[in-house]
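QA checklist item 7 of 12: single-chain prediction sanity check.
[x] sequence parsed
[x] length recorded as 172
[x] structure emitted
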Amino acid sequence: MKLLSGKVPALAHDLVEALRSAELIEVLDDEISEVEMDVESVLREYIRSDKEVTDRARDVIATQKRDYSELNKIKSQIARERGFGIGETMPEYLTAQLIEALLHSRHVEEVFGMDNELVVAITPVLRKHLGADEELDAEVKRRIKNFQEGTVAFDVQYRKVQEELRRTRRLD
């Protein structure tokens, strides 16, 4: 699962809307955009941290002269050491971070839902958005299968093909 920065505003909007419509949070109408920005900040911090973990994994590969095919294994190990959720643990990790942000946001008037109710409302919205990103990710990887994952050439080609697909599918 991969969270793409272009999806952050739409995901934040959908999350806030889902929580408001389920009456799990109370937000004044003029504060909705502020709450969405709070949610966006959590999502953007996740993207930043994920990049940091990936960069650290690449550094380990380079300094230890290991094979780039080990990138995901090393990345998982680093994430686990930092208590950071990637892959299948990503939705659970992000959900916990989002709940924490909502509980401490000065723009949320009241949080009525219990943690488990918030999880039930947040998880499907996350999975919906992350699922679309997963499909895009799989298509990009299929198109550049001749590049070795984890290399600079792979990353450059990945971004290029990803942008092309996002433009043609109007995902931005």
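[x] summary fact logged: The chain has one domain: 5-130.
[ ] second reviewer sign-off
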